Amino acid sequence: MRKLLLLVVVMITGVVFAGRLFYLQVLDTSFEKLSENNAIKVEYDYPQRGYVYDRNGELLVSNQPSYDVMVIPREVKPLDTLEFCRLLKISKETFIEKMEKAWIYSPRIPQPLIAQLTKAEYASLSEKMYKFEGFYIQKRSLREYQVDHSANVLGYIREVDERIIKNNPDYIMGELIGKAGIEQAYEDVLRGVKGVKYIQKDRFNRDIGSYKDGIFDTIPERGKDIVLTIDAELQKYGEELFVNKRGGIVAIEPATGEILALVTAPNFDPGLLVGRERSKNFTKLYYDTIAKPLFDRGLQGEYSPGSPFKTLTGLIAMEEGVIDTKERIYCNHGYVYGRGRKLGCHSHYSPLAMTDGIAQSCNAYFCTAYRRAIEKYPTPQEGIDNWKKHLSSFGLGDYMGYDLPSGKKGLIPSSEFYNRWYEYPKYKWYATATISNAIGQGEVNLTPMQMANFTAAIANRGYWYRPHFIKNIKGVDTIPQEYTTRITTTIDPQHFEPVVQGMWDVYNKGTAANLRVPGIEICGKTGTAENFTRIEGQTVQLTDHSTFVAFAPKDNPKIAIAVFVENGYWGSRWAGKIASLMIEKYIKGEITRTDLEKYVLEGSLMEEYEKPLRGRPFPINDGKKISAKFLADLPKEDKPLQ
Amino acid sequence: MPQSKVYLKFDWLTIFLFFALVAIGWVNIYSASLDESATTFFDLSQIYTKQLLFIVLSVLLIIFILAIDAKFYERFSSIIYIVSLLSLLGLFVFGKNINGATSWYGFGAFGLQPSEFAKAATALALAKYCSDLGVNIREFKHQIRAFIIIALPAILIVPQPDPGSALIYAAFIFPLYREGLHFVYLLLGFFAAALFVATLGLGVVWVALGVLLLGALIYLYNLKRNRKKPPLMRYIFIALACIGFAFSVNYIFENVFEQRHRDRFNIVLGKETDAKGIGYNTNQSEIAIGSGGWTGKGWTQGTQTKGNFVPEQHTDYIFSTVGEEWGFLGSLLVVVLFVALIVRILYLAERQKGTFARVYGYSVAAILFIHFFVNVGMVMGLFPTIGIPLPFFSYGGSSLWGFTILLFVFIRLDGGNYYYT
């Protein structure tokens, strides 16, 4: 026993030590990171962000240098606070508050104290920086916008927040990330690769050379330039046409799916979201809940498509074989269905066949066609689902898959939707209950992007490409395959010709006859969509939305366009004019219909938008001209941002 | 008999373990003290070059020790002990103050630390005393004398001040126990240590309450179980002794200890977690070891080591370099080598026929063990920071030679036994 005591104690000690070592070195991995933070300083070298060009090579977005004053709180030594504050142009209170915040975030992680100084501010500061230990200046590159339009397409970059850092270890405090539009969609391409230098430090926090002779160090790699499908001139023109109006334009090149223009109004100058004013300006835009400048109406606005949808109703009816191009259908100022209910129509000659039905936008014709297409099937459920299948093949009722991060699905109702709505099987429902869908009212909702897309599919006579903004990534020279794959609709190509002819007639003898552009064969369709809002709990009808879809030329179309003007009344009043001007601008490069241009540029709908806010009953659909006096009397903050 | 056969009888396994540890130690000292600015390898201002010189000199020392007749050590042990005590006394007059402790004799750039040699001298003296025919360690009279032999150098070392080195003399309780010291002494020692820690950790009031409660419970248990009434006075006496001990510990801690000692205890007892302040050494050392992972960062690649984050890394904290650069496998190897060396010495000690060699061998094993136990435990954050070197590993001539003498005298004794008997 006496012989064994020390032996046993030694053995136990050996086992305990081995266990402790195993715990420290193998089980508990928190020490690995700690050691890295402790002894290794990481310095970043930020590359230039890639430039953005339009389809014609016009530079839209470049870079400007910017300088952040960074702080590592635990390394800050007592300093001449007053001088430092004077150099940074901040108050002492602000400085103390910012330092406290920095300490709370982390004493050892470098973080921006004052972000995005200009070159001039940097110059006066840089020669004095050596006096302030724990602070240093980090150069970054900020965006410099060469244009004052397209903010909704281009997006913006901003400092990463803590949520991003948590989810994405590539980013650290103070770095910039694309937060909307192209900047977000192509963040990985534009960002480039930051260069890293690891520096070994000793316990006094002095640099003692490159870590492992720099074998882990990397040099920065410049972000790749990208070319957009956007035509900057067309985009700019579209935004000009929308001054004092709200709505959106989507223009697509049918042959490729390239998006030529995506206008939303009101918009804002992308330069507002750069530099130290970014946050202030963003807040202002964000809280403008009336004009909603950050709301991209082209992608996010879901509206009743109105009459342009009749083209699809006609196509589906023909594909289902329930109507042909010759059959003429009577219209007696409307479509009468069950128990004397009637869906009204305007005055036109009657009866009409398909092509004239589109040209005259006859409600009765398309209600008949729609009802037949649904009632061809034994149950309305099967009928609706079949109808939805056709529409889905045009990309409707779902995200389009384009390369911007925002958007809405729109709505193409299914049988399930109506079953729930009407509490089937407790109550039955029939095709007539959904009859408004025939003319683009009712439950159907589309975004302007979806309207432009089905117009492009009609222009192509039966196929389309996924709309996209990316034309080329320089240095990669390919774009994702999904944007070059042709998608075919469920409608046989032969059925498109009568519809196209009808749309051509719209321009030549129909609802848009006064919008003809000499020398261009335009096909279009007007639309007028009823819409409602809620004021103090009451549903109130507002002036109709003016919608228009068109493509041109009739053969080998170069552009398909959807225009949507909020509360613009009937289709050709605003949307049709804007569409015609856009088409002329794109195809000819100049405007001959200066009468239209003058009307649109000078016209304003601000009074219309003012009506529901005035707090008293108001007339709708009166089409009154807006006086210049009214505009001048508007309170200042309600003036649209330009 | 030809002389050469003598050498063959030395325990080559122990010698191998010794050189293995010295070699691994030097490799790590090289990394811990590597200075990129050094011009040539043989630059005597570099710590690793000096240590290499110490190792070469220790080899000469080994040859010298092994060449001397084994009987010499037994015969001259008293004189060696007295010389050693005198050298410790002499420090009060001629000592050189380094880092606040007067533990060195200065010879130009080099210093000699007599306390490192006093361990071997004390072990020889104790072995000599125990091997006297008239001495029986079971008797109280002889116990007192043995304790005086052990305590004298410790008492001289404490005021240097070097309480860490003095603490090592507690190791001698193991050879004494082996020679027949009552188990109660070990229990008492252990209980005192437990009370000590409990007092510092929980406070004197809780310890007093705990002792009273425990005493009352044991008393009541015995009252129920035994027919005879247990002696109440004895219980009260023991309880009061315990509480008195706790109070005196508290008094010593608050009034005799310096703040740095208090801080070190507080860190290990979990009372202080301020990583940037007083717990810095231990914290950085744990980080260094913990960041090693399975196989470490590679020789001279430790970031903690390169950045000199662990103070005293080439001396007391050398094990943290092993942990960081060689990982779990490397550290485990070092632990295994130490355990193997100590176990081997114990095995050799047990096979000695004479009491002198056995007690001495046990002392060597116990001293090496306490050094290993306290040092590695400290570096891994298990014990308070007590500044004692890791045998054969830590930088320092005195320490290396002291341990070399300690170990090789035993190897000589072990080898000599076969030859002469």
From TrEMBL, chain A:
Chief place of localization: membrane
Presence of the UniProt keyword Nucleus in the record: no
Gene Ontology CC terms, in alphabetical order: plasma membrane
Any Pfam family the entry gives: PBP_dimer
Alphabetically ordered keywords of this record: Carboxypeptidase, Cell inner membrane, Cell membrane, Cell shape, Cell wall biogenesis/degradation, Hydrolase, Membrane, Peptidoglycan synthesis, Protease, Transmembrane, Transmembrane helix
GO biological process: cell wall organization; peptidoglycan biosynthetic process; proteolysis; regulation of cell shape
Penicillin-binding protein dimerisation domain location: 46-208
Membrane topology of this protein: Single-pass membrane protein
Residue ranges annotated for the Penicillin-binding protein transpeptidase domain, each copy included: 247-579
Keyword Nuclease in record: no
GO MF annotations in UniProt: penicillin binding; peptidoglycan L,D-transpeptidase activity; serine-type D-Ala-D-Ala carboxypeptidase activity
Entry's localization field: Cell membrane; Membrane
Protein name according to UniProt: Penicillin-binding protein 2
Organism: Marinirhabdus gelatinilytica
UniProtKB/TrEMBL annotation, chain B:
An annotated GO cellular component: plasma membrane
GO biological process: cell division; cell wall organization; peptidoglycan biosynthetic process; regulation of cell shape
InterPro entries from the UniProt entry: Cell_cycle_FtsW-rel_CS, FtsW/RodA, RodA/MrdB
Keywords: Cell membrane, Cell shape, Cell wall biogenesis/degradation, Glycosyltransferase, Membrane, Peptidoglycan synthesis, Transferase, Transmembrane, Transmembrane helix
A molecular-function term among this protein's GO annotations: lipid-linked peptidoglycan transporter activity
KW Membrane (keyword) present: yes
Membrane topology: Multi-pass membrane protein
Subcellular localization, as worded in the UniProt entry: Membrane
Keyword Transmembrane: yes
Stretches assigned to coiled coil: none
Protein name: Cell wall polymerase
